[in-house]
Design brief:
The protein is mostly helical. It is built from 11 helices and 2 strands.
């Protein structure tokens, strides 16, 4: 007999993946199979599945069915942040301030974990960005900007910090900060990025931290902000 109750918790089922034999990427039982096994109606399971999808815990595709994904904090933060931004314009600036504090606080821990390969990747991102800005026509290195900052903090063993940083860049794009802001400004940004990488490579982490703080101050000097004041 089917029970329209919350006795079966789909999120708990996902969290206990190793005990029920499911790993990240594995195909999960269909809603029909779960309904038959746990005695919960399809409608209740469908509601719980929608929550899991919104949180980025599973993906659902027509032919492959339901698959369990690696845990990421970013989807939950992103959806909540986008909602806040839709209600109040100041929400992005508030979250951006939080992001700055996170990067400052976790700087030392993050850069100490970077490998030689990571530093090479950071240098390559800077080189690519500079070539894009010198091209004809000029291309704004938006993806490179995001990847540069994420790459510095990617080895933190803290999915909540990394998730918030990833959500910030999604919001950054949402509010239109990826649009062209003038060549002089973009060159300043990437000059700071280049110097930050070289400070990290030389293990001058305190200097890199100082450059990071100076880099953050550039956002308040963006051309469109100056025009509003």
């Amino acid at each position: 007999m089917l029970k329209d109750t919350k006795s079966f918790d789909f999120l708990k089922f996902l969290a206990n993946g190793s005990s029920n034999g499911h790993k990240n990427g594995d195909r999960l039982p269909s809603l029909e199979a779960l309904s038959a096994e746990y005695g919960v109606s399809i409608s209740v399971l469908r509601e719980q599945l929608q929550v899991a999808r919104a949180l980025g815990l599973v993906e659902v595709r027509p032919r492959t069915g339901i698959r369990r994904l690696p845990y990421s904090f970013a989807p939950a933060v992103r959806e909540s942040l986008f909602y806040a931004m839709a209600r109040e314009n100041k929400s992005f600036d508030q979250f951006a301030n939080l992001r700055r504090h996170l990067e400052r606080a976790y700087w030392q821990e993050a850069v100490e974990k970077l490998t030689a390969a990571d530093i090479t990747e950071l240098r390559d991102l800077v080189k690519t960005a500079e070539e894009m800005l010198k091209g004809d026509p000029i291309r704004v290195p938006n993806a490179e900007h995001r990847e540069f900052h994420i790459a510095i903090f990617r080895h933190l063993e803290n999915p909540f910090v990394v998730g918030m940083l990833e959500a910030y860049w999604d919001a950054y794009e949402r509010v239109g900060l990826t649009r062209y802001t003038g060549l002089a400004y973009q060159e300043q940004v990437w000059d700071y990025h280049r110097r930050i990488v070289e400070a990290i490579a030389a293990k001058l982490f305190e200097k890199g931290h100082q450059l990071l703080n100076e880099h953050f101050e550039l956002i308040d000097k963006r051309p469109e902000r100056a025009n509003k004041e």
